[in-house]
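Q: What residues go here?
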């Protein structure tokens, strides 16, 4: 599995009518701090993973993205069923213990096979509060000709790197040599980012107490 150099720049010109953008949901984490099976834990009567998948499906329906891939552990039938129900594409990770970087590498390698994919909108499977309006703002910034990496800056946690993050194809090769739980913020040289201000909060669910805390968060 290799990420190849892009055949053209990933960032669109401001006058571009449409370039292909695909979502990539990273959902292969082991959930060890949660106690296992985190993404199937219930939040308001739905599995956690159902929320980012529904967001991707809604973004596709609105024409904001052209498709969606979801990296899940090999053999995870429950997650595979959710991916299938949303008519998204599953990318099976047979070595989740290798961390976030390996899921990124698998997912972006799969997107390289997607026809004309020029950017990836990367979401985390344990963030159920992402809003469609934030996705729209990030994509608008990309079409306006901003940097190759664009992420939100949430008002409630301005110092925490926000998700989802849009990564133009020109930046995909930067993750080739990453290991463990490193993401694009660990790449060297680190590419410049555009920050898009957003209201509210978008916390990770790492522990059971994080999940319980979601019930009182007001967006």
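A:
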């Amino acid at each position: 599995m290799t990420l190849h150099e892009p055949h053209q720049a990933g960032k669109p010109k401001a006058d571009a009518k449409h370039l292909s953008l695909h979502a990539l949901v990273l959902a292969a984490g082991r959930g060890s701090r949660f106690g296992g099976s985190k993404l199937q834990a219930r939040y308001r009567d739905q599995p956690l993973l159902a929320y980012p998948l529904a967001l991707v499906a809604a973004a596709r329906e609105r024409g904001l993205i052209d498709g969606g891939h979801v990296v899940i552990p090999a053999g995870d039938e429950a997650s595979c069923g959710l991916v299938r129900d949303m008519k998204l594409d599953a990318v099976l990770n047979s070595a989740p213990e290798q961390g976030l970087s390996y899921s990124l590498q698998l997912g972006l390698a799969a997107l390289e096979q997607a026809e004309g994919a020029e950017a990836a909108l990367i979401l985390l499977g344990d963030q159920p509060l992402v809003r469609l309006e934030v996705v729209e703002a990030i994509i608008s910034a990309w079409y306006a000709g901003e940097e190759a990496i664009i992420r939100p800056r949430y008002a409630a946690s301005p110092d925490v790197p926000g998700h989802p993050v849009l990564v133009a194809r020109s930046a995909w090769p930067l993750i080739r040599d990453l290991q463990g739980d490193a993401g694009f913020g660990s790449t060297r040289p680190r590419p410049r980012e555009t920050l898009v201000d957003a209201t509210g909060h978008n916390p990770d669910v790492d522990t059971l107490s994080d999940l319980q805390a979601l019930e009182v968060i007001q967006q």
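A: Context that may help when evaluating the design: Residues 20-213 form a domain with the Spore Coat Polysaccharide Biosynthesis Protein SpsA; Chain A fold (CATH 3.90.550.10). The mean pLDDT is 86.
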